[in-house]
Amino acid sequence: MSGALLVVGDIVTDVVARHLGPLAAGTDTAAVVRTLPGGAGANVACWASHRGCPDVRLLGRVGSEAAAWHERELTAAGVRAHLVIDPEAPTGTVICLVDTGAAAERTFLTDSGASLRLAPGDWSDALLDGVARLHLSGYLFFSEPSRELVTVAVEAARAHGVPVSVDPASAGFLTELGVDRFLALADGVDVLLPSRDEAHLLTGLPDPADAAAKLSRHVPLVVVKQGAEGALVAVSGKVRSRIPAIAAVPRDTTGAGDAFTGAFLAALLTGAEPEEAAAEGCRAGARAVEKVGGRP
């Protein structure tokens, strides 16, 4: 398959704080703090470009105060940015608290700002010109204007014969939205890329393989991302493959799932089978956790 990857999703400013010990309530905790470009949608686009996809495009919404910086960063990463400048809201900001212990786990404090104010008026069917695959960040499902955009974008993609993928993005926000609403909005999607926790939430099943199999009865291809345990590929109600993880020494797990998704989609666009694409995703995820921040 040839053609572009169009990603629609969030663009945010990440403030990454790698704290050097337990958080001390009411006083100071030493940390290494960096301000970096981020956002699940933007990260996916950058990792897809890094994996070798020659034409990656991104539709997102930002505030005027950081628009030029984000556009420069995306352009430098090889992504063609279609940025909508929000006249009222600032660019979304996420504070990433990263534990410097062995797991390098992270906690997010999220101010979505302009990122979830994408609306049907920001969409044009012309965005699909030359596009071979549309990817929607799951964060779009968590506000009313962007949910309306999801519906418009999926309908347009189906009318143009463009397959659609979705990464649910946030177990916490998914719980607030509700499983039934998410699955209804995802009707017509070709590929679903949940994390293990998101697959559990979407099915109620504790075993990730059972969850993947169940989801693949609703979505043609399901790939469950399991971090250090690799990935599961499920089709037509059955787990078809178990893809092993790549060994890595984690420094910051922020964006690891986005790295997997971007590399996976880039591989699909070059004709890879799902298993080969998932292996590419695992390789990108391993690279991502060994660096600070969510981008290549």
UniProtKB/TrEMBL annotation:
Keywords: Kinase, Transferase
Domain Carbohydrate kinase PfkB: 5-294
Pfam families to which the protein is assigned, alphabetical: PfkB
PROSITE patterns: PFKB_KINASES_2
GO-annotated molecular function: kinase activity
Annotated EC: 2.7.1.-
Top EC group: transferase
Domain of life: Bacteria
Transmembrane segments: none
InterPro entries linked to this entry: Carb_kinase_PfkB-like, Carboh/pur_kinase_PfkB_CS, PfkB_dom, Ribokinase-like
UniProt keyword annotation of Transferase present: yes
Family of this protein: Belongs to the carbohydrate kinase PfkB family.
Protein name: Carbohydrate kinase family protein
Native organism: Streptomyces caeni
Taxonomic lineage from the root: Bacteria, Bacillati, Actinomycetota, Actinomycetes, Kitasatosporales
